[in-house]
Design a protein that fits this description.
This protein is α+β, with helices and mostly antiparallel strands. The chain contains 8 helices and 8 strands. The radius of gyration is 22 Å and the shape is globular.
Length: 316
């Protein structure tokens, strides 16, 4: 495996080196060109294929290998996890499309082509994962997931085409939950994992997905700071199985926790658009782009499915 990785890196180095050798005098390696550089187009195409292909092989090896295979089949999971998993698909497709588009800037392709290449590559990657699900007995091909993937990619494409900028950005936050009930603590470990990283990615009870709106973008003449956003968040709580809080363990023992209410939550909170913070340093710009996918901790107003209105002094 290490040898294959070194070969991939070597090939990428050759491709990028040959792509920039004849243009080094005109355009620096990290500069965005004004015209198409064919070598860079080929380099990005090959690099994208290698990265996507390698990650899918790893995913198949370390995620799907432990589950029984089956023939292609469909599954209707739209009613599971109070749709938190669907918001995850929207967010992931949006981010893949967004950062893929940023990479295509380096090629010098026209702005519209960068947008379409980035958006469709994000959708394509998510679609391949859905086909892997379709051949796993544990999951299946979900039209709900595909719809969520399409919404995420379309969110990037439409904003860039019509507004020429991302005025509404998708963000993510997660805060670890300590489950005091020993049975629920064991159940959470089974479902969401043991480590902080696993819990961050898998625990739907701890996650919130945000639609962060840049206020200045919709009111250019106002004195609203360019970095100030208002974010609407969606989350859910009290979930210990996909559709209900009743499950069986490996020994067939049934646990009934249906007395715990599964609740949707909506949040309203101020936010920061890090990309609007002025800086000339390229490394800082890259860091701010990466930070912009995370919702900053801030006061938040919550309204939930139980009819409760809550104010959080600090919510993440």
């Amino acid at each position: 495996m290490a040898g294959c990785r070194q070969v991939f890196l070597f090939l990428l180095l050759l491709i990028f080196s040959s792509a920039t050798a004849q243009t080094r005098k005109r355009t620096g390696f990290f500069e965005t060109p004004d015209t198409v550089i064919k070598g860079r187009v080929w380099a990005l195409g090959a690099g994208t294929a290698v990265v996507y292909g390698s990650s899918l092989l790893l995913l198949n090896e370390y995620w799907y290998k432990g589950y029984e295979k089956s023939s292609f089949h469909f599954i209707n999971d739209s009613g599971e996890w109070l749709q938190m998993d669907k918001f995850g698909h929207v967010f992931t497709a949006y981010m893949l499309s967004k950062y893929s588009r940023e990479l295509w800037r380096w090629s010098g392709l026209s702005r519209k082509r960068q947008i379409w290449f980035g958006g469709l590559s994000g959708l394509a990657y998510q679609s391949v994962i859905e086909f892997l699900d379709a051949h796993s007995a544990h999951w299946g091909f979900s039209w709900g997931d595909m719809g969520a993937n399409a919404i995420g990619s379309a969110g990037m494409i439409c904003q860039e085409l019509f507004w020429h900028e991302p005025r509404i950005q998708l963000k993510f936050s997660s805060f670890p939950i300590h489950y005091r009930d020993p049975i629920l603590r064991t159940r959470a470990r089974e479902l969401f994992g043991y480590t902080l990283a696993e819990r961050t990615l898998k625990d739907y009870n701890a996650q919130t997905y945000w639609f962060s709106v840049n206020l200045h973008a919709f009111a250019r003449e106002s004195r609203i700071p360019k970095w100030l956003n208002i974010a609407v968040g969606y989350s859910a709580d009290g979930m210990f199985d996909a559709k209900g809080n009743r499950w069986k363990d490996v020994d067939g023992h049934t646990y009934d926790y249906t007395h715990i209410r599964r609740t949707r939550q909506l949040f309203l909170s101020p936010d920061i658009d890090f990309t609007k913070i002025p800086t000339r340093k390229r490394g800082v710009k890259v860091l701010l782009q990466a930070l912009n996918m995370i919702k900053v901790p801030a006061p938040a107003l919550e309204i939930n499915g139980a009819g409760q209105l809550k104010m959080h002094a600090l919510y993440f």
